[in-house]
Amino acid sequence: MISTFKIACCSFLIAVSTGSSSQELFVTTEPASNMPKNSIRVRLTNEGVNESDLKSRNSLGVMYGLSSDLMINANAYMADFYQRKQRISGYSFYAKYRFLNVDNVQKHFRGAVFGQYTTVKFPIVHDEINLAGENNGLQGGVVFTQLMHKLALSGSVSYTQSLDKFAPGHEMMHDNAHNSFVYTLSSGYLLFPREYKNYKQLNTNLYLEFMGDSHTGSGRNFMDASPSLQFIIGSKLRLDLSKRVQLWGNMERRFKNLYLARIEYNLFNVF
Q1: Residue 177 three-state SS
Q2: Domain membership flag for residue 81
Q3: Domain count of the chain?
């Protein structure tokens, strides 16, 4: 597991050292850039862990570009992490507004603010406040993304507030640590094509992302790393594969190592 992670990290560093530009369709985090106006993105994600048997969570997401600066996103989650059969576990709603847009030749810089609300039927008892279908909560933050030719860099800081204490029977969840700061650093590199000839070319992107979380009260924290490989077919169909590994941490979590597989389809100029 760790050896695979080291190989992916080395491959990313070699790619960056030999190239000059990138993509910013990050797999684990969201960039500051937005979807095109009047476009729809449909996303199906499967993530899980192989313990004594395979446990996974599935999510269906639909995103819409209201304008060039504002997009919204709704997700539904199903999981069998804590029972034998898949069942609907919750929903989330996300919005992002781009407030900064600086364009130059073959590069740009973006800034955006974002917010998310998640509601779940069966909150999970652990330190981590996970708004991807496991806990009730709110999140708000800011993200900045720099694109330089084939290389993209992005970082975000956000504040997460758990709402599980308002769910009957779950008042003492998270060891009274009901809020946390989340911070991310993402990098992406366009491997292929070397030169663009038309929009039908297969795009291959390599990513390395870091995700950290710190409770404001207890001082517990963790840091994860996620190498990913991405394929974009005909500028509309997107395939993501990634592995998430905990680098360090003292926060109680149900799963510290997860795989992710995703398929996504984009519809442009819908209305």
Answers
A1: coil
A2: no
A3: 1
**Residues 220, 239: contact at Cβ < 8 Å?**
no
Strand 137-148 to strand 237-249: parallel, antiparallel, or no bridges (unpaired)?
A: unpaired
Asked if the structure places residue 185 within a domain, the reply is: yes
One DSSP character per residue, 74-118 reads EEEEEE-SSSSS-EEEEEEEEEEEEEEEEEETTEEEEEEEEEEEE
Residues 177-187 as b/e (b if ≥16 CB within 10 A, e otherwise) read bbebebebebb
Q: What pLDDT digit, counting tens, does each position of 125-183 carry?
A: 778 889 998 889 999 999 999 999 899 999 999 999 988 877 665 555 555 568 899 99
Domain that holds residue 155: 2-34+91-254
Whole-angstrom distance, CA of residue 245 vs CA of residue 116: 24
Q: Is residue 63 part of a domain?
A: no
CA distance to 51, 77, 90, per residue, from 7 (Å): 23, 32, 36
Token pair in block for residue 146: 């720099």
Q: Could you tell me if residue 72 is inside a domain?
A: no
Between 116 and 271, residue with greater pLDDT:
116
Query: Count of CB atoms within 10 A of residue 263's CB?
Result: 13
Ordered DSSP codes for 123-157: ---SSS--TTTTS-EEEEEEEEEEEETTEEEEEEE
Give mean pLDDT, residues 116-123. Answer: 90
